Amino acid sequence: MDHTEPEPRGKPDPSRWAAKAWALLSAVRSQSPLVQCITNFVSMDLMANTLLSAGASPAMLHSVEEIPEFTPHVHALCINIGTLSSDWVPAMKAAADLACKSGRPWVLDPVAAGASGFRLKTCLELVELKPTVIRGNGSEITALSKASLASCKGVDSSHKSTDAVEAAKSLAQASGSIVAVSGAVDIITDGELVVGAHNGVAMMQRITATGCSVTALIAAFVAVDPLHAFEATALALSIFGIAAEIGMKMANGPASLRMHLIDSLHGLDEADVLSRVNITSFS
Protein backbone atom coordinates (compact mmCIF):
# COMPACT_ATOMS: atom_id res chain seq x y z
CA MET A 1 0.00 0.00 0.00
CA ASP A 2 1.09 3.58 -0.61
CA HIS A 3 2.66 5.15 2.48
CA THR A 4 4.16 8.25 0.85
CA GLU A 5 3.88 11.57 2.59
CA PRO A 6 0.67 13.50 1.89
CA GLU A 7 0.87 16.40 -0.51
CA PRO A 8 0.31 19.94 0.79
CA ARG A 9 -3.36 20.91 0.92
CA GLY A 10 -4.72 23.14 -1.78
CA LYS A 11 -6.85 22.93 -4.87
CA PRO A 12 -5.91 19.79 -6.83
CA ASP A 13 -4.35 20.44 -10.23
CA PRO A 14 -6.96 19.49 -12.88
CA SER A 15 -4.23 18.35 -15.28
CA ARG A 16 -3.16 15.65 -12.82
CA TRP A 17 -6.56 14.02 -12.24
CA ALA A 18 -6.47 11.68 -15.24
CA ALA A 19 -2.91 10.51 -14.67
CA LYS A 20 -3.65 9.94 -10.99
CA ALA A 21 -6.81 7.99 -11.88
CA TRP A 22 -4.87 5.57 -14.06
CA ALA A 23 -2.15 5.24 -11.40
CA LEU A 24 -4.70 4.34 -8.72
CA LEU A 25 -6.63 1.89 -10.89
CA SER A 26 -3.31 0.26 -11.81
CA ALA A 27 -2.41 0.08 -8.11
CA VAL A 28 -5.71 -1.62 -7.28
CA ARG A 29 -5.09 -4.14 -10.06
CA SER A 30 -1.51 -4.87 -9.01
CA GLN A 31 -2.00 -4.83 -5.22
CA SER A 32 -5.47 -6.43 -5.08
CA PRO A 33 -6.40 -4.86 -1.73
CA LEU A 34 -8.57 -6.96 0.56
CA VAL A 35 -11.80 -5.05 1.18
CA GLN A 36 -14.16 -6.31 3.86
CA CYS A 37 -17.78 -5.44 3.10
CA ILE A 38 -20.44 -5.51 5.77
CA THR A 39 -23.31 -4.75 3.48
CA ASN A 40 -26.93 -5.41 2.64
CA PHE A 41 -28.37 -8.51 1.02
CA VAL A 42 -29.51 -6.57 -2.08
CA SER A 43 -26.05 -5.29 -2.95
CA MET A 44 -23.69 -8.13 -2.04
CA ASP A 45 -23.43 -9.61 -5.54
CA LEU A 46 -22.83 -6.38 -7.46
CA MET A 47 -20.46 -5.01 -4.82
CA ALA A 48 -18.33 -8.15 -4.86
CA ASN A 49 -18.26 -8.25 -8.66
CA THR A 50 -17.40 -4.55 -8.87
CA LEU A 51 -14.41 -5.08 -6.59
CA LEU A 52 -13.31 -8.19 -8.47
CA SER A 53 -13.62 -6.51 -11.88
CA ALA A 54 -11.52 -3.58 -10.65
CA GLY A 55 -8.83 -5.95 -9.40
CA ALA A 56 -9.57 -5.84 -5.66
CA SER A 57 -10.37 -8.77 -3.39
CA PRO A 58 -13.78 -8.67 -1.66
CA ALA A 59 -14.61 -10.34 1.65
CA MET A 60 -18.33 -10.29 2.40
CA LEU A 61 -17.86 -11.08 6.07
CA HIS A 62 -20.24 -9.77 8.72
CA SER A 63 -20.18 -12.22 11.64
CA VAL A 64 -19.26 -10.45 14.84
CA GLU A 65 -17.49 -13.62 16.00
CA GLU A 66 -15.00 -13.44 13.11
CA ILE A 67 -14.28 -9.72 13.18
CA PRO A 68 -11.60 -9.69 15.93
CA GLU A 69 -9.44 -12.11 13.94
CA PHE A 70 -10.22 -10.94 10.42
CA THR A 71 -10.77 -7.17 10.30
CA PRO A 72 -7.32 -6.06 11.56
CA HIS A 73 -5.80 -7.75 8.50
CA VAL A 74 -7.92 -6.17 5.76
CA HIS A 75 -6.70 -3.22 3.71
CA ALA A 76 -10.03 -1.38 3.93
CA LEU A 77 -13.51 -1.81 5.37
CA CYS A 78 -16.83 -0.86 3.78
CA ILE A 79 -19.98 -0.63 5.92
CA ASN A 80 -23.38 -0.29 4.24
CA ILE A 81 -26.56 -0.16 6.35
CA GLY A 82 -29.05 -0.93 3.56
CA THR A 83 -30.88 -3.91 5.08
CA LEU A 84 -30.11 -2.90 8.63
CA SER A 85 -31.07 -5.09 11.57
CA SER A 86 -30.17 -4.91 15.23
CA ASP A 87 -28.23 -8.17 14.90
CA TRP A 88 -25.72 -6.56 12.54
CA VAL A 89 -25.07 -3.32 14.43
CA PRO A 90 -22.56 -4.81 16.93
CA ALA A 91 -20.57 -6.28 14.04
CA MET A 92 -20.54 -2.96 12.21
CA LYS A 93 -19.36 -1.08 15.29
CA ALA A 94 -16.75 -3.70 16.20
CA ALA A 95 -15.33 -3.74 12.68
CA ALA A 96 -15.20 0.06 12.44
CA ASP A 97 -13.52 0.29 15.82
CA LEU A 98 -10.93 -2.33 14.88
CA ALA A 99 -10.28 -0.68 11.52
CA CYS A 100 -9.53 2.58 13.28
CA LYS A 101 -7.29 0.93 15.88
CA SER A 102 -5.46 -0.98 13.14
CA GLY A 103 -4.93 2.15 11.04
CA ARG A 104 -7.10 0.83 8.23
CA PRO A 105 -9.34 3.16 6.21
CA TRP A 106 -13.05 2.52 6.34
CA VAL A 107 -15.98 3.85 4.33
CA LEU A 108 -19.59 4.34 5.46
CA ASP A 109 -22.62 4.16 3.17
CA PRO A 110 -25.55 5.57 5.23
CA VAL A 111 -28.37 4.09 3.13
CA ALA A 112 -31.72 5.84 3.81
CA ALA A 113 -30.13 7.43 6.87
CA GLY A 114 -33.14 9.55 7.76
CA ALA A 115 -35.86 6.97 7.09
CA SER A 116 -36.15 5.93 10.74
CA GLY A 117 -34.81 6.83 14.14
CA PHE A 118 -33.04 3.47 14.32
CA ARG A 119 -31.16 4.10 11.08
CA LEU A 120 -30.21 7.63 11.97
CA LYS A 121 -29.02 6.64 15.45
CA THR A 122 -26.94 3.80 14.03
CA CYS A 123 -25.40 6.09 11.42
CA LEU A 124 -24.53 8.75 13.95
CA GLU A 125 -22.91 6.13 16.20
CA LEU A 126 -20.88 4.86 13.26
CA VAL A 127 -19.82 8.40 12.32
CA GLU A 128 -18.41 8.73 15.83
CA LEU A 129 -16.04 5.88 14.92
CA LYS A 130 -14.33 8.17 12.38
CA PRO A 131 -14.98 6.80 8.90
CA THR A 132 -12.36 7.85 6.37
CA VAL A 133 -15.10 8.50 3.81
CA ILE A 134 -18.87 8.85 3.97
CA ARG A 135 -20.66 8.37 0.62
CA GLY A 136 -24.39 8.80 0.13
CA ASN A 137 -26.97 10.54 -2.00
CA GLY A 138 -28.08 14.08 -1.33
CA SER A 139 -30.91 13.11 1.00
CA GLU A 140 -28.77 10.76 3.05
CA ILE A 141 -25.97 13.27 3.50
CA THR A 142 -28.44 16.03 4.34
CA ALA A 143 -30.14 13.78 6.91
CA LEU A 144 -26.84 12.97 8.57
CA SER A 145 -25.72 16.56 8.52
CA LYS A 146 -28.93 17.85 10.05
CA ALA A 147 -29.54 14.74 12.20
CA SER A 148 -33.13 15.02 11.05
CA LEU A 149 -35.72 12.29 10.45
CA ALA A 150 -37.43 14.11 7.59
CA SER A 151 -34.65 14.44 5.06
CA CYS A 152 -34.63 11.07 3.32
CA LYS A 153 -36.94 9.44 0.78
CA GLY A 154 -36.11 5.76 1.17
CA VAL A 155 -33.00 4.77 -0.72
CA ASP A 156 -33.76 7.27 -3.49
CA SER A 157 -32.63 10.85 -3.32
CA SER A 158 -35.02 13.79 -3.22
CA HIS A 159 -32.05 16.19 -3.14
CA LYS A 160 -29.69 16.89 -6.02
CA SER A 161 -26.04 16.34 -5.16
CA THR A 162 -25.28 20.00 -5.83
CA ASP A 163 -28.05 21.03 -3.40
CA ALA A 164 -26.29 19.10 -0.63
CA VAL A 165 -22.91 20.80 -0.95
CA GLU A 166 -23.21 22.85 2.24
CA ALA A 167 -24.58 19.88 4.17
CA ALA A 168 -21.67 17.77 2.92
CA LYS A 169 -19.13 20.41 3.92
CA SER A 170 -20.69 20.71 7.38
CA LEU A 171 -20.68 16.93 7.84
CA ALA A 172 -17.06 16.70 6.70
CA GLN A 173 -16.04 19.41 9.14
CA ALA A 174 -17.94 17.84 12.03
CA SER A 175 -16.81 14.27 11.38
CA GLY A 176 -13.32 14.71 9.97
CA SER A 177 -14.34 12.44 7.09
CA ILE A 178 -14.21 12.96 3.36
CA VAL A 179 -17.85 13.27 2.26
CA ALA A 180 -19.05 12.25 -1.20
CA VAL A 181 -22.54 12.97 -2.52
CA SER A 182 -23.62 10.89 -5.51
CA GLY A 183 -25.81 12.45 -8.17
CA ALA A 184 -25.76 13.66 -11.77
CA VAL A 185 -22.53 15.31 -10.63
CA ASP A 186 -20.78 13.53 -7.77
CA ILE A 187 -19.63 16.01 -5.14
CA ILE A 188 -16.58 15.33 -2.97
CA THR A 189 -15.45 17.54 -0.08
CA ASP A 190 -13.10 17.54 2.88
CA GLY A 191 -15.01 20.42 4.44
CA GLU A 192 -13.07 23.07 2.58
CA LEU A 193 -12.17 21.85 -0.91
CA VAL A 194 -15.07 20.77 -3.13
CA VAL A 195 -14.73 18.97 -6.45
CA GLY A 196 -17.26 17.45 -8.82
CA ALA A 197 -16.89 14.21 -10.78
CA HIS A 198 -18.96 14.51 -13.94
CA ASN A 199 -18.73 10.94 -15.27
CA GLY A 200 -21.62 8.48 -15.37
CA VAL A 201 -24.98 7.89 -17.04
CA ALA A 202 -28.55 8.42 -15.88
CA MET A 203 -29.46 4.75 -16.45
CA MET A 204 -27.36 3.82 -13.41
CA GLN A 205 -30.26 5.05 -11.29
CA ARG A 206 -32.31 2.14 -12.67
CA ILE A 207 -29.90 -0.50 -11.39
CA THR A 208 -30.07 -1.36 -7.71
CA ALA A 209 -26.79 -1.31 -5.74
CA THR A 210 -24.73 0.86 -8.10
CA GLY A 211 -24.32 3.39 -5.28
CA CYS A 212 -23.38 0.62 -2.87
CA SER A 213 -20.88 -0.71 -5.39
CA VAL A 214 -19.13 2.59 -5.97
CA THR A 215 -18.77 2.92 -2.19
CA ALA A 216 -16.90 -0.39 -2.20
CA LEU A 217 -14.73 0.85 -5.07
CA ILE A 218 -13.94 3.97 -3.05
CA ALA A 219 -12.76 1.69 -0.24
CA ALA A 220 -10.44 -0.13 -2.66
CA PHE A 221 -9.00 3.12 -4.00
CA VAL A 222 -8.47 4.55 -0.53
CA ALA A 223 -6.83 1.26 0.48
CA VAL A 224 -4.02 1.76 -2.05
CA ASP A 225 -3.60 5.48 -1.30
CA PRO A 226 -4.80 6.09 2.27
CA LEU A 227 -2.92 9.35 2.66
CA HIS A 228 -4.83 10.94 -0.22
CA ALA A 229 -8.38 9.84 0.57
CA PHE A 230 -9.93 12.97 -0.94
CA GLU A 231 -8.35 12.36 -4.33
CA ALA A 232 -8.91 8.59 -4.16
CA THR A 233 -12.61 9.10 -3.47
CA ALA A 234 -13.10 11.48 -6.38
CA LEU A 235 -11.19 9.21 -8.74
CA ALA A 236 -13.09 6.06 -7.75
CA LEU A 237 -16.35 7.86 -8.53
CA SER A 238 -14.97 9.03 -11.86
CA ILE A 239 -13.65 5.58 -12.83
CA PHE A 240 -16.97 3.92 -11.99
CA GLY A 241 -18.76 6.56 -14.05
CA ILE A 242 -16.43 6.01 -17.01
CA ALA A 243 -17.14 2.27 -16.92
CA ALA A 244 -20.86 3.09 -17.01
CA GLU A 245 -20.39 5.45 -19.98
CA ILE A 246 -18.57 2.79 -21.96
CA GLY A 247 -21.02 0.09 -20.91
CA MET A 248 -23.98 2.23 -21.93
CA LYS A 249 -22.81 2.16 -25.55
CA MET A 250 -23.47 -1.59 -25.60
CA ALA A 251 -26.52 -1.71 -23.33
CA ASN A 252 -30.18 -2.00 -24.24
CA GLY A 253 -31.45 -1.19 -20.76
CA PRO A 254 -30.66 -1.53 -17.05
CA ALA A 255 -30.05 -5.29 -17.06
CA SER A 256 -27.56 -5.24 -19.91
CA LEU A 257 -25.93 -2.08 -18.54
CA ARG A 258 -25.29 -3.93 -15.28
CA MET A 259 -23.40 -6.62 -17.19
CA HIS A 260 -21.51 -4.21 -19.44
CA LEU A 261 -20.64 -1.97 -16.48
CA ILE A 262 -18.76 -4.84 -14.84
CA ASP A 263 -17.10 -5.84 -18.12
CA SER A 264 -16.11 -2.24 -18.87
CA LEU A 265 -14.59 -1.70 -15.44
CA HIS A 266 -12.55 -4.85 -15.90
CA GLY A 267 -11.41 -3.77 -19.37
CA LEU A 268 -10.61 -0.10 -18.78
CA ASP A 269 -7.31 0.84 -20.36
CA GLU A 270 -5.06 3.85 -20.04
CA ALA A 271 -6.50 5.58 -23.10
CA ASP A 272 -10.06 5.28 -21.76
CA VAL A 273 -9.09 6.75 -18.42
CA LEU A 274 -6.85 9.56 -19.68
CA SER A 275 -9.42 10.74 -22.21
CA ARG A 276 -12.55 10.48 -20.07
CA VAL A 277 -11.81 11.58 -16.48
CA ASN A 278 -13.85 14.72 -15.86
CA ILE A 279 -13.31 16.28 -12.44
CA THR A 280 -13.62 20.00 -11.77
CA SER A 281 -13.12 22.22 -8.77
CA PHE A 282 -16.19 23.75 -7.10
CA SER A 283 -14.29 25.72 -4.46
TrEMBL record:
Pathway: Cofactor biosynthesis; thiamine diphosphate biosynthesis; 4-methyl-5-(2-phosphoethyl)-thiazole from 5-(2-hydroxyethyl)-4-methylthiazole: step 1/1. InterPro entries: Hyethyz_kinase, Ribokinase-like. The keyword Amino-acid biosynthesis does not apply. GO terms for molecular function: ATP binding; hydroxyethylthiazole kinase activity; magnesium ion binding. The keyword Transmembrane does not apply. Keywords: ATP-binding, Kinase, Magnesium, Metal-binding, Nucleotide-binding, Thiamine biosynthesis, Transferase. Its EC number is 2.7.1.50. Its cofactor is Mg(2+). It catalyses: 5-(2-hydroxyethyl)-4-methylthiazole + ATP = 4-methyl-5-(2-phosphooxyethyl)-thiazole + ADP + H(+). One of its GO terms (biological process) is thiamine salvage. Belongs to the Thz kinase family. Thiazole kinase involved in thiamine salvage pathway. This is Hydroxyethylthiazole kinase. It comes from Morella rubra.
